[in-house]
Amino acid sequence: MPRTKPHTIDSAGQDSFLDVVTNIVGILIILVMVVGSRVQQVILTAGSQTSEALEQEIKSLDETVANIENEINDLATATRSVVLATTHAGEARLQVATLLAAAKIDSEQQRQTQDAAHVAMVEAATKKQELKKEIEKCTLEAEGLSHAAATTQEVLSYPTPISRTVTGDELHFRLETGRIAYIPLTELFELAKTQTQRHSSSLAQMSSRVENVGPVQGFMLDYVIETKIDQSRGQVLIRSREWVVRPTGLGGGETAAEALHKSSRFHRVLANITPQTTVTLWCYPDSFEQYRTIREELHRLGVATAGRPLPEGAPIGGSTEGSKSVMQ
């Protein structure tokens, strides 16, 4: 038994399409009829108007056109004015921007100047406060001094020092451990001279020899004898090349306070000096304060003074190649 073929989707779609086309054609026919009737009415209306009405309408249209042209000219003029005003506004804007930039720079400079002035003002205020405190401190000190008991202090005035080499008599003192001791150098030299003359015959047989004399007042003298033969004169020359004075004990001498008394040994040694005599003070580092005291006493007595500072442990001595004392 043959089967009946089912309706497909394509046939249903074709029917729908035909329906749409038919509807569109109907709408187009209706539109043609409406347009035709409208055109007929326009033709009939135009035929019924007279020529005078048309002329009147044309004049009205001309006037309208003239008015429109006038308005267009006015608009063109206004447009040119607006363009010119816009150009001027741009230039003015540029000028305003330049003035604003200059004003900004000037404002920044003024701000910096004001900042510097403010810093200077703060520093001045701080300095003023410090000075005020210093003035108050000085005022308090002045008030304290005004109420303090008046004291008198003796100030020694020394003449302007003019150094010169010692050529006259010379007295020697040693300052060590805060004590001053007389060095009998003249007496020791006399003993050395006498001893050298006594042994001159034996000394002539050698070029040099170490001798010593003393003790005298607590000091010994060690010296080197140098012998030279003068062939032309047939003489033997003997001289002391160098010498060293050394104490025989410790703690000799007087304190500075004891030496200032008129009955002290220091004053007894100074009793027979002449105006041409110079006192040489051999001073070790531990006795500089006593040195100043003794120097002031010698200045008060009008005695010329020469200072010989020594390092600790150095001996008191001299030689033919050494320097002489310098007095002031």
List the helices and strands and how they pair.
Blueprint: H1 9-48, H2 51-147, E1 164-165, E2 170-176, E3 179-183, H3 185-198, H4 200-203, E4 208-216, E5 219-230, E6 235-247, E7 254-255, H5 256-259, H6 265-270, E8 278-283, H7 288-301, E9 304-309, E10 316-319, E11 326-327
Parallel strand pairs: 2-8, 8-9
Antiparallel strand pairs: 1-11, 2-3, 3-7, 4-5, 5-6, 6-10
What does this molecule look like?
The strands form three sheets. The protein has a five-stranded mixed β-sheet with strand order 7-3-2-8-9. A four-stranded antiparallel β-sheet has the order 4-5-6-10. Strands 1-11 form a two-stranded antiparallel ribbon. It is built from seven helices and eleven strands. The protein has 328 residues and is an alpha+beta fold. The protein folds into two domains: 62-135; 164-321, no CATH class.
Low-confidence stretches: none
Helix share of residues? 40-55%
Share in β-strands: 15-25%
Number of DSSP strand runs? 11
Q: Looking at the structure, what is the overall shape?
A: rod-shaped
Q: How many angstroms separate the termini?
A: 169 Å
- How many structurally independent domains? 2
* Mean residue pLDDT: 77
Largest sheet, strands/sense/barrel: 5 strands, mixed
Spatial order of the strands forming the largest sheet: 7-3-2-8-9
Query: Helix- and strand-based class?
Result: alpha+beta
Rg, rounded, reads: 68 Å
Number of helices: 7
> What sequence of helices (H) and strands (E) makes up the elements?
HHEEEHHEEEEHHEHEEE
